[in-house]
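User: My collaborator sent over this chain with a note saying "see what the structure looks like." That's all I know about it. Can you take a look?
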Amino acid sequence: MADASKLSVKTDARPAAPADRWWPLDSLRSEIDRVFSEFGSPSIFDRAFSRMPAAFSRNMLALDLVESEKAFELSAELPGVDAKDLEVTLADGVLTIKGEKNETKEEKENDYYLSERRYGSFQRSLELPRGVDSEKIEANFSNGVLKVSLPKTPERQQNGKKITVKAS
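Assistant: Without extra context I'll predict from the sequence alone. Here is the result:
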């Protein structure tokens, strides 16, 4: 039986660089490639950074989630968005916030005319944490800030246990 603690080693089939050229970082790159390839395919590097573009896209909604004793409090700053343009839904344990921002600015003077429009939609979905009472979820929007209260079930509120740390 093979030893499960050993990782398989994949070899790079690239031809060696010509002997008359010096590549000071080539050996470093080869070593880094070898280390990442040992973690399997796709490599740990690919998995870690494969979602980066989505995280930085323009329509990604930034959320703050804070846990208190009785609830999870979710908030999102949405300047320039009207409450009528927001939609908060819950389906199959997934909370989805989506909306659209439409802003128009027009200035007319004697010697110029300025017209600016900004618009775009956003959406963010997240799986509810365990122990949320989905029947009591509330959403409030005021002064450009959306606050969603996710109350915990009584069982979840009593679930925590403090562990004493002993010094030795």
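A starting point for your reply to your collaborator: Strands lie at 64-67, 71-77, 86-91, 94-108, 113-127, 138-142, 145-151.
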